[in-house]
Structures are given as C-alpha cells and as structure tokens.
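Extended Data, panel c. Modelled sequence:
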Amino acid sequence: MSRSKQPIYIIAEVGVNHNGSMEMAKRLIDAAKTAGVDAVKFQSFKADKIVSRKAPKAEYQLSTTDSSESQYDMLRKLELSEEDHRVLFDYCQDAGVEFLSTPFDLDSLNWLCDQLNLSSIKISSGDLTNALLLLATARKRTKVILSTGMSTLGEVEEALGVLAYGYLNPEKEPQGEADFLEAYRSAEGQNLLKKHVVLLHCTTEYPAPLDEVNLRAMEVLTRAFGLPVGYSDHTEGIVIPIAAAAQSAVAIEKHFTLDRTLPGPDHKASLEPDELIEMVKGIRQVEAALGSGLKTPSNSESKNAAVARKSLVAARTIEQGDRFTADNLDVKRPGTGIKPIKYWRMLGQTASRAYEKDDVIE
C-alpha cells in the first residue's frame, strides 16, 4: 500500500453493526459500495473462545447496550455463523468490494484463511499482544493489517517479531522471545514484513477524544519500522480520517452504521451512509491534492506565468545604442521578456534597438 503506487485503501468497518441480521449486513455492504470504499470489514469470533461468561463490559459498551447483560451474552448475539460468512463473502464479491474480517480466535482465523481463502487479515489492537494469534496468522502467509491502539513502540516491535518468525518458520515452534527478536532483526524477516504487513495507528476509545488522536504518531511508526502506515479511526465525524489522508496514510478504516441510534456497542461511534460518502469523497480529494511532491509548475498554472510574473521593461524611451541604466529600466508585467533577476547583468549593456516606455526588453 504505497502512496506513490496505489490509492489510499479505504475500509468500511461494519464490525458487529449488523446486529446479528443478515439483511442489515447486506444493506451495509450496499451502502459501503455506494460510498466507493475498497473493502467492507466484519468481525469473526466465537464468544466461548474470546471472553469468559463473567467478563465485564467496557465503559463505552455499558453506555450503548443493556448494562445488565454480560459481555459474553452481548457478543453471543453478534456472532456470524460459517454460513453467514459465506453469504457475506459472496455478496461482497458480487458488489465489487473486498470482504475483510478480524478474527478474534484461532478457529475463526482458520475458517477465514482455509475456507474463504482471504488474502488479508485484519488484527485488532486488542490482539496486538496475542502472540499465538499473530504467529498463526503469519503462518497462513496472508497479508496482515495490524492495528496498534493502546500500544508502545516496544509492543509493536514485539508483535512484528512474532509475525516475522511466523513468516520465516511455517512449522518450527519458537522457544521464546529471543527467537522473535532474531527473526525481526534478520534481513529476510524485515523483507517479509515489508511485503506482508501494514500498520494502522489507532486510539482505542469509542469515540476517541480529538486531543488523544495523535496523528503525528503515524510518522513515528513509519520511521521506526519502515512499513506502510495507515489509520483506524474512532473519532466522531469525518475530519480526522481526511486529515490522516494528508498525513500519508496508506489505508483508512472507519466504523459505519445504517443508523447511529440503533442498539449495539459500536453504532454510536460510527458514520451513517451519507457521512461515509462524504468521508470517501474528502479522502479522494486530499489524495488528488497531495500529488507527487515534485516542485514544478503544474499544467494549469503554467499558462498563467506570462500574466502573473514580470519582466524587464523600458521605464522611458530608450534609443538604439543607449546603455541600460537604473533610470531607464523597470520591472512590470507581463512575464514574457527577460527575467528581473537579469537586471544587474543588463546594466551598462547597449540597447540593440529602440524601446518605447513599457516595451518589454528583449
């Protein structure tokens, strides 16, 4: 996902905003397609595999769902079955958008890679420290989009070490952290990471406060790891993802819903369809405006140089054979003659022809 070679990859995050309804999931895919995104992302999990029956909800989940319901019960209602996955995968293909998903357990990872043959897997910020899932994902030889919310640079490096080891060793079991560090430091490991991994800067709060977004961390991630870096957004509105586009994000992910007032943990911090359309439009406009970075006159402005710039002109009548002086030279539009920077070189030279006042010097 290089800025110079590919457009910004825009991921519309359905997550669990389908509320367990396949009809709603399909409507969300339709809305994402209309908005012009590149991919639609879901979440794949088995509640039994990822959370205990007594685990509390996050603070934002308590405010958007039944507070008396456990996290397990909430997630159990939001699971997608294997058949659901197949239906949504096919529906995305028919719509012309990529189907993506985030697995939260090994069984879901295996299903996505072995049955749906996904070429890219999104790993959530919550699993950045889940070495077992990271290792298994790398061994699937897939591309990895890795969110880095809640993390330090050291934790990101550890995660990349696990991925590098998995790419390098499809079957050999690691003995510990030293093996991951060795894989990360190896030239081959670095090459595989550059080939397969995209990092996403992220602030894991719903919605994320603007003063905690820290978009400049994208630059730090790029310098620290030499990998393409994008942005996963949890702020309200569309301003920050568009700003991330101007910060050289190679990919942008944003939650969306059909209606922010729907019950469920993520609807409130999501975009509605019209907003998603505006976000995609804004990102593409910024992307077009970023250009190549080469400082040279553009096609549209080149024609204006003759009008907007200035040339050396006669300040008064100059006869043929007169010498150019500070008294008979001036600088005025148009810019079709000798550039003003040649003024000092012209002083003392002889006029090869006569000039009327305001004639451009040739």
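The longest strand covers residues 9-15. This feature is highlighted in the accompanying rendering.
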